[in-house]
Amino acid sequence: MASVSVSSRLNKGLRQHYLSLPQGDECQVTYIWIDGTGEGLRNKTRTLEREPQTIDDIPEWNFDGSSTYQAEGSNSDMYLIPVRMFRDPFTLDPNKLVLCEVLKYNRLPTETNLRSGCNKVMEQVKEHCVWFGMEQEYTLLGVDGHPFGWPTNGFPGPQGPYYCGVGADNAYGRDIVECHYKACLYSGVKICGTNAEVMPFQWEFQVGPCEGIEMGDHLWVSRFILHRVCEDFGVVATLDPKPMKGNWNGAGCHTNVSTKEMRDAGGLQYIEQAVEKLSKRHAEHIRVYDPRGGQDNQRRLTGFHETSSINDFSAGVANRGASIRIPRQVGQEQRGYFEDRRPSANCDPYAVTRAIARTCLLEEGEEEEEQSK
Fold this sequence. Notes:
There is one protein chain. By secondary structure, the chain is α+β, with helices and mostly antiparallel strands. The chain has eleven helices and 13 strands. The protein has helices spanning about 10-20, 115-125, 175-185, 215-235, 260-265, 270-280, 280-290, 295-300, 330-335, 350-360, 365-370; strands at about 25-35, 40-50, 60-65, 75-85, 95-105, 130-140, 190-195, 200-210, 235-240, 255-260, 315, 325, 340. Strands 6, 7, 8, 9, 10, 11, 12 and 13 form an eight-stranded mixed sheet that branches. It has a five-stranded mixed sheet with strand order 2-1-5-4-3, with helices on one face. A hairpin with an 8-residue loop joins strand 4 (about 75-85) and strand 5 (about 95-105). Helix 2 (about 115-125) runs parallel beside helix 10 and helix 3 (about 175-185) crosses helix 4. It is globular and about 55 Å long. It starts with 11 loop residues before the first helix and ends with a helix. About 40% of the residues are buried.
């Protein structure tokens, strides 16, 4: 049996006594940000005199960037700029979770603050009312790095019974999944579903539909909540796109896309136009669909285990082995959305949604023109 953390064995009943103490009118606000790896999340908490009603009620803050891979010790203060507020599912109302952008000492975005550039593109294409939905796959590990519940010196039975499975011999870790789901609903994250995945101890949740920049905000906070829930249970959720070598499925973050034109009658033609544009920028998208310029996806996009080849672009109706899948229902109704199956589980949703919006909705040079103004 995979190991669980020491902290998870502490007396949770004793902890609950302190969490239930009254706090008057004061409010705990937890600031969340993306660190210098582009994958890790950090957080710290402060007290406000009263419950904030809007994001404008939450002040900027700062932190030591030399301890988060974002600055040198000689010039380490970084700015936290609140951008999206949620209810706190861990310490409960009136407390808040707040997603922040990170700015350097000169108030320019840090290298891993991709939200800033994404937001500019989303403002340019807002007339198209772009909806996104992202399917976040993840794998549960023990703190020893071994898949949670896998035999110590062996493997579980082959893939087949686990996808959307039920029963003690087919579904593993459901307590974590259900707690995460409820915590997201409480917080206001737009989680819309969950299911067990093909590999045992691998799960997926879906966030959306979200319009524009909202997609990245909600997915990042849903990830934060996932890691916090797993912390309570003493296990680790990894977003590694290929956590186990061999005949096991990898983990992606399939991204569903729909514009106002695609949703209207006859919208299939706009979907086909978008797919054609995406086919011409395949290599460019692969570079931004994982945080290592395509190296992570190289392990996952092999053409096997329900993936396309990283080297070739493909599209098809109901084809889960293609780069772009057009759902069968969309083909029948001639409108709706398409699914880009290439983003890795550890992708930055700001990078993914920006690339898709830019390719599908902006003409060559249009983004650069806007940024130069």
